[in-house]
Task: structure prediction
Amino acid sequence: MKRICLLVGLFCLTSAARAQYRNEYESSIYDRYVTFNVSARYGVAFPMGGQRDYIDKLSPANVALDGEWLFPHRFSIGLKTGYQYTQQRVPRQVYQHDNQSISAVQTRTLTIIPAMASLSYYFADNAAAIRPYVQMAGGGAFVDYTNYFGLLSDQKTGFKGAIAPAIGLKFYSGREKGLGAEIQAQYQNVFFNYDLLKNSAPSLMLSAGISYRFY
Result:
């Protein structure tokens, strides 16, 4: 009887060890180690809040670049940057500038180059073909506010604080595939305040592009 119990115990231990070995070595490498993801997207941005008082037109020139460290438990940390540019021309009017009257066509421009850290949570494992996520990013942005009055200009530049929560979706041709696509909706608020751009410069950017994961 003792021998039977001993054999049953050894069999259970062996089975458990084999199952653990299979789980450890047959699961995806993306689920066992820290891996990486990079993405590049093109987007359009809609001005909001105080930015609409300066430029109320859609911005068609936006590029976003992201890099992420993907952790096995569906979290990632990353870095974000890009280039955002928008402009709007106002018909010729008479303006008061530096205590003088100027008759000119006004060209309003705004350039933003963000530099932020991000934290994301994915609703599917790191090897999945479809990976929806939510993201919170914060840091700063270089801002170039330049308002042209004909040949004259009123310029203000600086590095200001910024936040950028987002939701998005990465999708690949199959499980563990490296190259895929990504779409994202991001609300961005840069805390810049000068002249016609009051309080801050918020916008909503919709972007799409390519994503690549690797280890």
About this structure: The mean pLDDT is 88. The CA atoms of residues 91 and 104 lie 8 Å apart.
